[in-house]
Amino acid sequence: MAVLVVPPGGGQQHWQPQPANGWVDLLTSPRFAGAPPGFSAGVQELPPLGKIREHAHPAQTEIFWIIEGQALARLDGVVRRITAGTFMVAPPHARHGFINDGGGPYRMLWMLMPAGLEDFFVAIGKSKGPGAPDPTPYPRPAETGAIELDTVFETLDPPPPPPWDTAPITDPAVLEVLRREAV
Q1: Is 68 a domain residue?
Q2: Where are the beta strands (DSSP E) in 22-160?
Q3: Which of 27, 71, 91, 159 is deepest in the core (most CB within 10 A)?
Q4: Is residue 6 part of a domain?
């Protein structure tokens, strides 16, 4: 197998619906010709107030490296401030979610082993072609819950509380309590 090289902008890009309202650039996946098996990776960007709802994966380890910006993260029930340069590893069943509470983009590299997260992004996203207008915000597809369970997400019990749920953040004031709580 040859070395896989993905030049800037060379991934498979998809806009993401609410509550993320950003985009993902899939860099490698077993579904791509010539890609190594066993894991997937991509870059995801959230605009201000964009979020990745609290979730967990049943059999996957997810690795994160924060490239740009800042966010509040809820990691196994603890709210933390994370900034560019932060590295994290979430093993199977570890609950994690992110909210961009900054004034600019929040961008992170993620890797999932074994793969499967890319199937979720493709199923709920809209292709991000060159020069195409940004369709965000647009609502989550009605079948998102079923897509999650068919890919790499597990059902959380108890479900995530607001603002870590799937509802979009419309009032930034709700983040003030989280900012004070963050470690």
Answers
A1: yes
A2: 23-28, 40-46, 51-55, 61-68, 70-75, 78-83, 87-90, 96-99, 106-113, 126-127
A3: 71
A4: no
* pLDDT value at residue 129: 87
Query: Partners of 44 in the beta sheet?
Result: 24, 108
DSSP 134: P
Containing domain of residue 169, as a range?
12-181
Q: Nearest 5 degrees, angle CA 99-CA 63-CA 35?
A: 120
Sign of the Cα pseudo-torsion (91, 77, 110, 129, in order): positive
Contact call for residues 37 and 108 (beta carbons, < 8 A):
no
> For residue 172, what is the domain's CATH number?
2.60.120.10
Q: What is the pairing mode between strands 96-99 and 51-55?
A: antiparallel
> Which pair of structure tokens corresponds to residue 36?
């190594």
Cα 176 from Cα 117, distance rounded (Å): 31
Please say if the pLDDT value at position 65 is more than 70: yes
- Average confidence (pLDDT) over 22-29: 97
Is 4 inside a domain boundary? no
148: helix, strand or coil: helix
Residue 2 lies in a domain: no
- Digit-coded pLDDT (tens) for 37-55: 999 999 999 999 999 999 9
The count of domains in the chain is 1
